[in-house]
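Name: DNA-directed RNA polymerase subunit Rpo11
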Amino acid sequence: MRIEVIKREENVLEFYLEGEDHTFANLLNEVLHENEHVTFAGYTIEHPVLMARKPKFRVVTDGKITPEQVLEEAAQKIFDRARAVLEAWKEVLGE
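Structure predicted for DNA-directed RNA polymerase subunit Rpo11:
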């Protein structure tokens, strides 16, 4: 995964998330929407063949926190949820 910043303003961040597709992009988008400071979050894949693994994100906040802070919080939430799933599987498998 590689992040390429396209546009950065006070409360707006646009970036490509290279190496990912709808699977992770949709998860990130959903978690971003859980943050009360996010006024807009969305992504598009500009060309279904040429850019299939390069979603373009736009994140806008209310200005109380930066888009970078929102993304950091979202990444941590995704990590925590993945860890919870792993722990649940370990419990089921008796590990």
